Structure formats: structure tokens, C-alpha cells
Amino acid sequence: MILSDADILRRLEQGDLVVEPLDDPDIQIQPASVDLRLGHEFLEFQHANIPCIHPNSEDEVADYVEETVIEEGGEFILHPGDFVLGTTHERVAIPDDLIAHVEGRSSLGRLAIVVHATAGLCDPGYEGQITLELSNLGTAPVALTPGMRISQLTFTELKTPADRPYGAERGSKYQGQSGPQASKIQGDREFGGDQ
């Protein structure tokens, strides 16, 4: 079952679902979703003279991205073909009986802005800001302003709560993240990690 605005408000009031700060519920809570705003931090992928990125090399990934922080009142220009990691302004906490789906807003989609490449899911138990995988598929640069509504979350209720939710007990790599996070794929079991 997908949660309606009434369901979302009830869960927020109960405190088991967290979206904070939720500064303007009348605007941010939609009929079946919650609009999330763009944060100030971005990780930009640098043009590098390397043959490829090896997912098991943390150093290569770290050398490939550069952090940019946009000052209050500033804007981030997303050029055609660019791919950057951004973050939501809000921090979320998803209870064990819900799954959250990160979706783009249609108004930005009509400007050719995509908010996630593949990672459009927040597992039960996830807590933290959400890293956005921002791309411009269009032919003109688009100005993104921190604080603008950039994405929306929809919530689906699970038939039963997750037995092993996302979190510290599982060693989940992105639990509690603040700001955009680069890939931590080198922590996956197939690359010698424990996940």
C-alpha cells in the first residue's frame, strides 16, 4: 500500500517516520509524497586522465570527485551531459515497515533534470540525508538553487516489517550520511569488504 498525505502526516506525527526539517508541510506534503529540497553540497566528477575507475580502489574514487559548497543565495549550474552528486536538505528516518522511493519532480524532468541514475530506494531502517544522482539530459545549462524542491519521496508499506533493516547492525555503508557521499562499493564483499 502506498501512503497518502493523511497516512504520511499520521506517521510523521507518531514520530516513527522522520523528515526534518519539514519547514512547509502545506507545500512539501503532496497527495501521496513529500517534496525534498536541495542541499548546499555537491560532489563533482573531475575529468581525469585515467584509463578507468576500479570499483575496489577507494583512492581512485576519492581522487575523481571534488566537493563544491554553494553559498546562501547562490546557484549550481548543471551543464548538459554533467553528472554530479547532490544531497537533500532534509534528513529522513524510514521505519522498519516502510520503503521510500526517491522520485524526480515533473517540473524539473521537463527541463531534462534527472535526480537519480539507479539509486531510487531508501530501505527500511535507513537514516540520513539522501544522496541525489543529478544529471542534465538536455541541451541547455540549468541553474539549481539550494533550498528548491528537487525530488519527492513516496512510501510503500511492507506486508511485514523487515527482519534485518538497513543500519549499523548490518554494517550498512551509508547509514547516517550527511551530505553527498561518493561510492563505497569497495566495501562490498566481492571486493574484499564485509557487505
Describe the structure in your own words:
The chain is mainly beta and 195 residues long. Helices cover 13% and strands 34% of the residues. It has helices spanning 5-14, 25-28, 58-64, 106-109, and strands at 18-20, 29-30, 33-37, 41-45, 65-69, 76-78, 83-93, 98-104, 113-114, 121-122, 127-136, 142-144, 149-157. Strand 2 (29-30) and strand 3 (33-37) form a beta hairpin. The model has no long low-confidence stretch (mean pLDDT 89).
Outline:
The chain has helices spanning 5-14, 25-28, 58-64, 106-109; strands at 18-20, 29-30, 33-37, 41-45, 65-69, 76-78, 83-93, 98-104, 113-114, 121-122, 127-136, 142-144, 149-157.
